Amino acid sequence: MTPIKxxxxxxxxxxxxxxxxxxxxxxxxxxxxxxxxxxxPVFIADHVRGVLVFGLYQEHAWLVPERAVLETVxxxxxxxxxxxxxxxxxxxQRDALDVxxxxxxxxxxxxxxxxxxxxxxxxxxxxxxxxxxxxARTALDGKLDERTxxxxxVVAQAGTQMNTLIDAMLDVSRAAQRSLRLGPVDLNxxxxxxQATLLPDLLTRHVEWNVADLPQVWGDQEALKxxxxxxxxxxxxFTQTRDPATIRIWAEDQGEVWSMSVQxxxxxxxxxxxxxxxxxFQRLHSQQEASGTGVGxxxxxxxxxxxxxxxxxxxxxDQGATFGFTLPKGDxxxxx
Length: 336
Hints:
Elements: H1 3-10, E1 14-16, H2 28-31, E2 36-44, E3 47-56, H3 64-139, H4 146-177, E4 182-186, H5 187-198, E5 207-211, E6 216-220, H6 221-237, E7 245-253, E8 257-264, H7 296-306, E9 311-315, E10 321-328
């Protein structure tokens, strides 16, 4: 029996102090000079994948320290081979992901112009429908009964809602396609502009603002203004039933990134559904509770991801919510 055949079924190291060529079915020219052998199984993921064999030219009694060294060498070889196999598998997975990413990028590149074109076509059709609806109202002025007038009102409302959704889809498409013009952005200035723009719509409301001193960040000024406007308008929308409405805006230095947060004391949301908030057309509140299209936060996510950042949301039902995002610091080469 050779050392290799002895080791494989037992899964244990095999040490032979006197190797008798005559008693084995091996060629004398290959093993005739061997006096002692040691065969150690090499494991990969707990399976024997090979045998490491040592031979000496003279008979030898394998001492405990020698056996420990040889078994350590075999164990280390197994670990190295296991890591090599894992590395090859990871490389294959990475290559597959690269192919998938390239395919998705191609599909996305084709989808964005298509959705933009479709949205424009839909908007034209809806505009025509609403235009002819108004002409019909004018032509039938004084001749409409109450029920027919109500039907026409429903059609007009549906058309107006469709126009709103189409405009929102176009905004998302523009957000995905626009190229960023990167540079230093003073968030204090942006928030002052946003508050001034929103002020006329808040004259009949009691809103308490708590805006901390904000940092200068690196990004696209118009894109970040759109993001902060959307988050601020959301906070105001979901606090319409609060008196006062409390809006808190602040930034945190988290080392390599800035974290921006917009917090309100409004309707909040069930946290188990927070992953849906940034998906297109996903809404957690009815139109009666708060109007909207379910598109604004999707645009926010796309713009922030183009900056190399992430979006987040925290909230509880009827206890307010916090929406925010992170931005890499400085002139990051990872920005797109």
